[in-house]
Write a structure and sequence with these properties.
CATH class: Mainly Alpha
Radius of gyration: 23 Å
Number of strands: 0
CATH superfamily: MetI-like
CATH architecture: Orthogonal Bundle
Length: about 300
């Protein structure tokens, strides 16, 4: 009960005066909810032909139809489930790998640090986008799960370096030293003493990776490197391009999935910016800056009172 209350109070503090966070969370949550409710909200089966090819938006088909006569709204709702699943799955995998490698390297140091950072630096040498294209092309028409795994396995190096740097800083704190002197197990020191201090960084890394993954998946599938039989926002763009929707004036065929990708990307970007502003005082603006200044003044006043 106390942990739930602390979590809710923490969310309240995060969103208080945080316009970017509120707007970004609202956009992402709304699109996620609509996608999850696709079986209930979609007016037609996304795989069935229900209209003439490239029928414009009407009362019967609110967002028009594709070249194959499939309802665009139904495809957009069902495709969001796949695209968001890939983005969040890749972000989760990236966060787990980056945390494991970064925290281990920063806490244990020595040869462990050298080996893990050598692997990280090797991964950083390869340009990520060409590496993604090569892997996807080598594996053939890959499905959403494989795309999520590829994105997760290639997106962790920068996060691992950030986590290592922060862990090195926390490693020298008094409470970590006290826990070591008391003979606490290393795994407990990492989980109880260090990891809670990395929550804001981990959240920012998760959101940032999801932002990258939503665009990378759409790009890979637009290039024809995904499975064209699976409905997602990327394959919708692929089929719109293949049917020359832009040239024949069927703007709704590519505008709908493109707008959804842009909206989710913008929402995640706003959320990522708000996390950075909350966790990094140098980036704080508006209410966050005023609140930080007020808290800093209170801390200085307490120090001055204690010194006197």
């Amino acid at each position: 009960m106390k942990s739930a209350y602390a979590f809710l109070s923490g969310l309240g503090r995060f969103y208080r005066g945080n316009t970017a966070g509120i707007v970004g969370s609202t956009i992402v949550t709304l699109i996620l909810a609509l996608s999850l409710a696709a079986p209930l909200l979609a007016p037609h089966d996304p795989d069935r032909r229900v209209a003439r090819g490239h029928e414009p938006p009407s009362a019967q088909h609110i967002l028009g139809s594709t070249r194959a006569g499939k309802d665009v709204l139904s495809q957009a709702l069902h495709g969001g489930r796949v695209s968001l699943m890939v983005a969040f799955s890749a972000a989760a995998l990236t966060s787990v790998i980056a945390l494991a490698i970064g925290v281990s390297a920063g806490y244990f140091g020595g040869r462990t640090d050298e080996m893990l950072m050598a692997v990280t630096n090797i991964m950083l040498v390869f340009p990520q986008l060409p590496l993604l294209i090569i892997l996807a092309a080598f594996l053939g028409n890959v499905g959403p799960f494989v795309i999520a795994v590829i994105l997760g396995l290639t997106s962790w190096p920068w996060g691992a370096r950030v986590m290592r740097a922060q862990t090195l800083s926390i490693r020298r704190k008094e409470f970590v030293t006290a826990a070591e002197i008391m003979g606490e197990a290393r795994w407990r020191i990492i989980v109880v003493e260090i990891m809670p201090n990395l929550v804001s960084l981990a959240a920012g890394m998760f959101v940032g990776t999801a932002l990258y993954a939503i665009g990378a998946q759409a790009g890979l599938e637009f290039l024809g490197l995904g499975d064209p039989t699976v409905i997602s926002w990327g394959t919708m763009l692929y089929w719109a391009q293949s049917s020359q929707a832009f040239l024949v004036g069927a703007w709704w065929d590519f505008l709908v999935p493109g707008t959804l990708v842009a909206l989710v990307g913008g929402g995640l970007a706003l959320l990522n910016i708000s996390i950075d502003q909350v966790s990094n005082p140098r980036l704080r603006t508006g209410p966050h800056l005023r609140r930080w200044r007020r808290l800093s003044a209170e801390v200085e006043a307490r120090r001055a009172g204690g010194a006197s």
